[in-house]
Amino acid sequence: MVSERRDPPFGGSLVFLLMNLPLGVSAFALLTSFTATGLGTAVVWVGVGLLALVVLAVRGAARMERARVYALLDRYVDLPYLPLPAGKQSRRWKARLKDPSTWRDLAYFFLLFPLGIVEFVLVTTFWATSLALATLPISYRWLPGGAYYFPSDDLRWLTVDSAVEALPWAALGVLFIALSVALTKALAGMHARVANALLGPTVAQRRRMERWWEDVEEQNLVAG
């Protein structure tokens, strides 16, 4: 379940979105390399251990990702896992592999790479443009030729070579900063919904968990 907060905090959203690209690259590289190696060596049983390690790592990383979403975006994502059955390890591994949450965790980390690219490009482009325009009354002095040329140095439709001429651009930059804040929060909110959809329990899983806990309570009552 996602918390009732309407918008994620701005500071946490910005940090979260900038983290997604390096995390997505790392996750994609590790998952593809370990999975490919595990599948390729499964016939000699070495790969089985690697694939088991991938399953454990993905479920552990998904727990950390839920914590990151909560810490930075103030959105709580429920755990979708049922307790593992008691007994032999083979039963526990069978439960992990049959659990759809394991595969949804895996899908999330593969999706984090393309999502991270889109989010990083949008956030850095909007913020770089906004801050460049907002600080133009000061920064134009250090540009080549001591002036800002729009749209480019080769095509000079407008020239800004004084603080007064830069003021309208600075006002436009302030507007872009407001748009960048809204965009940052919107992207973070969208990512939180994706995380909740893939890392949280489905409606069917919630019902299974509720039935499981009801059975446990009944067993405890009978035992008592």
Automatic annotation (TrEMBL):
Protein name: Two-component system sensor kinase
Stored InterPro entries: Put_sensor_dom
Domain annotation Putative sensor: ranges: 16-199
Domain of life: Bacteria
Keywords (A to Z) from UniProt: Kinase, Membrane, Transferase, Transmembrane, Transmembrane helix
Keyword Iron: no
GO molecular function: kinase activity
Transmembrane feature ranges: 12-31, 37-58, 106-128, 166-188
